[in-house]
Amino acid sequence: MSEKRQIGVIEDQNEKVYRLFDLRVELIKLADKPGIMSAYELVAKELGCSTSEVRRWFTSEDNSSFRAPPREKAIWDYLECVSGYRLDRNLYHPKPDFWD
């Protein structure tokens, strides 16, 4: 990972990597309501998680309250689908650990 950072996007050898933080725009569109908290509530309801837990997933990774979503296939299938398959679970959970 290069040291040059932008909010939500990490540049690595001139290639932008899609992160959870970037997915917030799609979540707001999906919720069809103003505000990010409505989007978090929708995701929490869909996945059976708390809104507080979901909010931590989409916090900037530089923030100490950030937590990656758990290694649950249903959660990552949902997140990848909402992102248009631009989000990659292996960015947060390496494949050997994710599939165990």
Q: How do the helices and strands line up, and which of them pair or pack?
A:
Layout: E1 5-6, E2 9-12, E3 15-17, H1 24-31, H2 36-47, H3 51-57, H4 73-82, H5 95-98
Antiparallel strand pairs: 1-2, 2-3
Structural account:
The chain has 100 residues and is mainly α. The protein is built from 5 helices and 3 strands.
The gist of it:
With 100 residues, the chain is mostly helical. It has five helices and three strands. The chain has a three-stranded antiparallel β-sheet, with no helix packed on it.
What characteristics describe this protein?
single chain; disordered N terminus; 41% helix; mainly alpha; globular; 3-stranded antiparallel beta sheet; 100 residues
